[in-house]
Amino acid sequence: MLIYKINQDNLTETTFESFTNDEIGKYWILFNVDELCKKNAYFNFSHQSVNECIHNDDTPKLDIYENYNFGILNIIGTNQNLFSADELDFYMTKRYLVFVSKKNLNIFKEIKDDIYAKGTLNLGLENILYTLFDKLTAKDYNILSNLESEISNVEEDVIEGKIKDYITDIVSLKNKLLFLKKHYEPLLDIVEDLIKNENNILGEKSISHFVILFNRIERLNRKVGNLRDYATQIRESYQAQLEITTNNTMKLFTIISAVFLPLTFIVGWYGMNFIYMPELHWKFGYIFVMVLSVSVLVFCLWLFRKKKLW
């Protein structure tokens, strides 16, 4: 449990007793699930929201209550090139902001460092909540740029005709983009509901900041959609390349078959060995068949060349 009293431009760590005895000051509180359950007699948060914190497997959302907002967020990270997410729940009233998580997330330290680094004037609950959302998306442009570079590299390899099974790479990229899409869409809904401010928890000045944040997330979501289309085009190009390669191979085998078909016919014809075949005892028979075979071969190759089949 960590409790910070919010002063005008900084945070001061304090105790839960001091918090409960202060009915005027504003506080930022970090709880784990067990601490929330023990202290909920004071806060009187809804049992449904507390259960959602306990189970920790819900879709990101924002629930509007009369005196507070309850939100579920996913803090995304990367683990061995596979995206993963940790759930962070928050309660926000006009007097305190409570973060609830099952483990100590790095984003808490990032928020504090950001506040201390900027020396924010008129620091308030909205600033901390905005900083949280800002940290959720601040690194995403780099993530999307890296994914775009990966897709571009796959495209170059496909165009160059390099031999590799790119389907696995493309599917992996599309799965990452789908993960981000599922992250941004509910995040847009949450920020939109915050902007509506139905219970007047947020101050009027902070709403404009969340509008800017909403526009940023919307751009990121569009970028993800564009990259998914890009990856789909690469997959289609790769499949087309495979079809072209297969067609060229089949074409080569067809030409070889077509060339040797008349030669096979000649061999079969003169391989019958009937007694009364005129060429059987002709002294130029062997040379005749050899010249005939070479002539047929040259003619077939010339014909395929003329028809631009080879």
Describe the protein.
The chain has about 300 residues and is of the alpha+beta class. The protein is about 60% helix and about 15% strand. It has helices at about 15-20, 35-45, 45-55, 105-120, 125-140, 140-160, 165-195, 205-270, 285-305, and strands at about 1-5, 10-15, 25-30, 60-65, 70-80, 80-90, 95-100. It has a seven-stranded mixed beta sheet. A hairpin with a 4-residue loop joins strand 4 (about 60-65) and strand 5. Helix 5 (about 125-140) runs parallel beside helix 8 and helix 7 (about 165-195) packs antiparallel against helix 8.
Biggest β-sheet: strands ordered side by side in the sheet: 2-1-3-7-6-5-4
Query: What string, H for helix and E for strand, traces the elements in order?
Result: EEHEHHEEEEHHHHHH
Class computed from helices, strands and strand pairing:
alpha+beta
Discrete helix count? 9
Average pLDDT level: 82
Poorly predicted sequence stretches spanning 5 or more consecutive residues: none
How large is the radius of gyration?
36 Å
What is the total tally of β strands?
7
> How far from one another are the termini?
77 Å
Topology readout:
Layout: E1 2-6, E2 11-14, H1 16-21, E3 27-31, H2 33-43, H3 47-55, E4 61-64, E5 69-79, E6 82-92, E7 96-100, H4 106-118, H5 125-138, H6 140-160, H7 167-196, H8 204-270, H9 285-306
Parallel strand pairs: 3-7
Antiparallel strand pairs: 1-2, 1-3, 4-5, 5-6, 6-7
Helix pairs in contact: 4-5, 5-8, 6-7, 6-8, 7-8, 8-9
